[in-house]
Write a structure and sequence with these properties.
The complex is a heterodimer of chains A (258) and B (376). Chain A is an alpha+beta fold. Chain A has helices at residues 5-11, 14-34, 88-92, 127-131, 157-165, 172-175, 196-200, 242-246; strands spanning 62-63, 68-69, 76-78, 98-103, 112-118, 137-139, 154-155, 183-186, 206-210, 228-232, 252-255. Chain A is built from 8 helices and 11 strands. In chain A, 22% of the residues are buried. The chains are: A alpha+beta (258), B mainly alpha (376).
Chain lengths: 258, 376
C-alpha cells in the first residue's frame, strides 16, 4: 500500500467504488445527526454577546470572548451634543451615504444638522470619523446591523446617539483630532463683505471687521459692497471649509499664512 | 382490513351530500340531483381530487425529506425557518414559482414547449390512480396493474424529448437526447427485474404481489433483482449518480434549461413525483407493501389507515436510500452509464430471473419459509 498506492487502486473491486463513498457519507450523516457543524447564527453564536458591554479597552489588542479588536470599524456612535454641524463627515464620505438632517436643538434660522448614515451604502472606511473635528462621530465594535427591512439600514442621528449613550467600546484611533496646518485665506479685492461666511461658520470663529471706505477719485466708481472683511480665528477654526463653499465671490481659499 | 375502497368512500360521501341537498329541493330538482350517473361522475371527481391532493402533499413532503436528509449528509441543517422544522419551505418556494412569469424563447415551438411539462406531469400523476397504497385504496382492481403502471411510467422520455427539442436550445436538446438514451437503456433491466418478481408472485396485479409476500418479503430471496431494480430506477428517476440529462456542470440545466416559473415547477414536481412512484414500487414489489411481518404486534398494524402509514414509512425509508446514494456517489460518464446498463444490468437481471425460476421450482427456502400457493 505504501510503496505504490496507485497500482493497488487500479486493482480494487468496482464494488468498493460504490461502497467506500457510501460508508463515508453514512459516517458523516451519523456524526451530524445529533449536532451539525453549522451554527444557527442569530440564535446561537460562538461569542458571548455580553462582551461588548465591557468598557476596559486596551488599544491594539483583542478583548472579550469573540476577539473583536477595539479598533474595529463598526456602527457609528454620534454625540449630538458636541456635533457642530460642520458637514465634514458628509463631505469626506466616499460612498455618499451620509446625509445631514435636521435635529432638534438648533434655532429656526440656523437649524442644527447631524449626519444620517445609510448602512446599505456604507463601506465602513472610517473617513467620516477621521474627518470629524470634534470627535463626536466615532466607530464602535457593533457589527450586527442586518434587518429584514431596507429602511432600517438608515441610522438617524438620534439612533446613533442612543448607541453613543450605550457606551459601547469606541475606536480609540478614530477619536484623535486630525492635524491640519491649512488656514482660511482671503483675497481682499474680491470680497464684498456679505457676511455669508461668518453666518454659516459652525464654530463662530469668523468675525466681520470694519475696513475704511476709500475716497472715490473723480471719474472712478467705488465697488458696491459692504465695507467689512472676515477675520478667521485660527485656534477655533476646525477647517471645515463651509465658509469657502458658501462664499458667493470665491474670495476665500486654503493656504498657509507666511 | 376494511373492504371499503377509496372510490366507494368517495361515492358514499357524494351520495350522502346529494341526498341531503335533494331532501330540501322541490320535486323536479330532488329527482334530478340524486341521478346515479351524476353521483358516479362526481364521485370520480372527488376520488381524483383526493388522490391529487394526497399525491401533491406527499411529493412536497418528499422534497422536504430529501432536503433535510441531504443537509445532514452535508453536515448542515436544511430548511428550518418556515413552519415547523421547515415543513412549509417548499410551499413558499412553490408560491414563488407561481408568481413568476413564463418566458418562452422566441424561436421555441409553442405547442411542444407548453404541452411538454404538462404532459410529463399528467403522465406521472396517472400512475397514482393505479398504485394500491393500501388494501382499501385500489380502485380499479385491474389484473395487470403492474404492467400498466410501468407502461405509463415509461411515457416520460417522450415528453422530455418533446419539451427539450421544442425549447430550441442546444443544451436542452443534448439533455433530451441523453435522457431518451438513458431511459430507454434502463427500461430493459427495470422490466427484467420486475419479471423475476412476477415469476415468483405469479401475478401482474400489485395487490396480489403484496399478498404473495405474507410469508417473507421478496427482497431477501430476490436480492439481485432488488439491486437491479433500484439501480435502474435511479436511472429512470435521473437522480444523481445517473443525472446526466441535467448535468449542471456540462449542460446548463439539461432538458429544462429554457423553462422557468410554473413550467419549471412542473418539471421539478414531476421529478419528485417519479421518485415517489419509484420508491412506492420498490416497497410494493420487494418490501411487502402495506403488510408487516407477523412478529410486529397487532396493535401496530390494526389501527385505522395502518396500511397507508406503514407503506409511507417504508417508502420514505427507501427514498432515504436514494438520498444516501445521491449524497455519496459522483456522476458517471455517458459511456460508463450505457456500458453498465447494457453489459452489467441486463445479465444480472437475467440471472435474477433464473434465480426466481429456481425459487419457484424449489418453493421452500430454509431461512425464509415457503412461498404461498401460486395464483394460478
Amino acid at each position: 500500500m505504501a510503496e505504490s498506492p496507485g497500482a493497488e487502486k487500479r486493482e480494487e473491486s468496482p464494488i468498493l467504488w460504490v461502497a467506500r463513498p457510501m460508508a463515508t457519507a453514512a459516517r458523516q450523516f451519523a456524526r451530524s445527526l445529533w449536532r451539525p457543524s453549522t451554527i444557527v447564527y442569530p440564535y446561537e453564536r460562538l461569542e458571548d454577546p455580553k462582551f461588548r458591554e465591557k468598557l476596559e479597552v486596551k488599544s491594539g489588542k483583542p478583548f472579550g470572548v469573540g476577539d473583536i479588536w477595539d479598533n474595529y470599524r463598526g456602527v457609528h456612535a454620534l454625540n449630538i451634543e458636541t456635533c457642530i454641524s460642520c458637514n465634514l463627515c458628509a463631505f469626506s464620505c466616499p460612498d455618499i451615504c451620509i446625509e445631514m438632517v435636521t435635529v432638534a436643538g438648533g434655532d429656526p434660522k440656523h437649524p442644527k444638522k447631524c449626519p444620517e448614515i445609510d448602512y446599505g451604502k456604507c463601506s465602513f472606511c472610517g473617513f467620516c470619523s477621521d474627518a470629524c473635528p470634534e470627535g463626536c462621530l466615532t466607530m464602535t465594535t457593533r457589527y450586527e446591523i442586518t434587518t429584514p427591512k431596507r429602511q432600517e439600514m438608515v441610522f438617524s442621528p438620534e439612533r446613533m446617539y442612543e448607541i453613543f449613550r450605550s457606551k459601547l467600546p469606541m475606536n480609540p484611533i478614530r477619536l484623535a483630532r486630525p492635524e491640519n496646518e491649512d488656514q482660511i485665506l482671503l483675497d481682499p479685492p474680491l470680497c464684498i463683505g456679505c457676511n455669508a461666511c461668518a453666518r454659516d461658520c459652525p464654530t463662530q470663529c469668523i468675525t466681520m471687521l470694519d475696513i475704511p471706505k476709500p475716497e472715490a477719485k473723480p471719474g472712478e466708481k467705488l465697488p458696491r459692497r459692504i465695507w467689512k472683511e472676515p477675520v478667521v480665528n485660527d485656534s477655533d477654526c476646525v477647517r471645515c471649509g463651509t465658509c469657502i463653499s458658501v462664499c458667493p465671490k470665491e474670495c476665500l481659499f486654503w493656504g498657509t499664512r507666511k | 382490513m376494511s373492504s371499503a375502497t377509496l372510490y366507494s368512500v368517495s361515492y358514499d360521501l357524494v351520495h350522502a351530500i346529494l341526498a341531503a341537498i335533494g331532501s330540501v329541493l322541490p320535486y323536479p330538482g330532488n329527482v334530478w340531483i340524486t341521478n346515479p350517473d351524476l353521483i358516479t361522475g362526481l364521485a370520480v371527481l372527488v376520488f381524483g381530487a383526493i388522490l391529487l391532493v394526497a399525491t401533491m402533499l406527499n411529493t412536497i413532503l418528499l422534497i422536504w425529506w430529501e432536503r433535510k436528509l441531504l443537509g445532514r449528509f452535508m453536515d448542515r441543517r436544511a430548511a428550518m425557518h418556515v413552519g415547523f422544522a421547515g415543513l412549509l419551505q417548499n410551499f413558499a418556494d412553490g408560491f414563488k414559482l407561481f408568481h413568476k412569469s413564463t418566458v418562452k424563447p422566441r424561436e421555441a415551438d409553442t405547442l411542444g414547449y407548453l404541452s411538454g411539462p404538462t404532459a410529463y406531469m399528467v403522465a406521472s400523476l396517472l400512475i397514482f390512480g393505479i398504485l394500491p397504497i393500501s388494501s382499501g385504496w385500489n380502485s380499479g382492481a385491474l389484473p395487470l396493474t403492474l404492467l400498466l403502471a410501468l407502461a405509463v411510467f415509461s411515457f416520460a422520455p417522450l415528453f422530455i424529448f418533446v419539451s427539450a427539442w421544442s425549447s430550441n436550445n442546444k443544451y436542452s436538446l443534448m439533455g433530451g437526447m441523453r435522457s431518451a438514451a438513458q431511459m430507454i437503456a434502463y427500461e430493459v433491466p427495470l422490466l427484467l427485474a420486475v419479471v423475476a418478481v412476477v415469476i415468483v408472485a405469479g401475478s401482474f396485479d400489485l395487490t396480489t404481489i403484496v399478498y404473495e409476500q405474507q410469508n417473507y418479503w421478496f427482497w431477501g430471496p430476490l436480492f439481485l433483482a432488488l439491486i437491479v431494480f433500484v439501480a435502474a430506477m435511479l436511472a429512470e428517476m435521473e437522480r444523481i449518480p445517473f443525472d446526466l440529462p441535467e448535468a449542471e456542470a456540462e449542460l446548463v440545466e439539461g432538458w429544462n434549461t429554457e423553462y422557468g416559473g410554473m413550467l419549471f415547477a412542473f418539471f421539478m414536481f414531476t421529478d419528485y413525483l417519479r421518485a415517489l412512484i419509484g420508491s412506492i414500487l420498490v416497497v410494493l414489489l420487494f418490501l411487502g407493501g402495506w403488510t408487516m411481518p407477523s412478529w410486529v404486534p397487532a396493535a401496530a398494524t390494526s389501527f385505522p389507515l395502518a396500511g397507508i402509514v406503514w407503506l409511507m414509512v417504508k417508502t420514505y425509508i427507501v427514498f432515504a436510500l436514494f438520498v444516501w446514494v445521491r449524497a455519496s456517489l459522483p456522476r458517471v460518464r455517458t459511456d460508463q452509464l450505457l456500458r453498465v446498463g447494457w453489459n452489467r444490468m441486463i445479465p444480472l437481471a437475467l440471472l435474477s430471473i433464473f434465480l426466481a425460476a429456481v425459487l419457484v421450482t424449489v418453493r421452500c427456502l430454509p431461512a425464509f419459509g415457503c412461498i404461498p400457493s401460486l395464483g394460478t
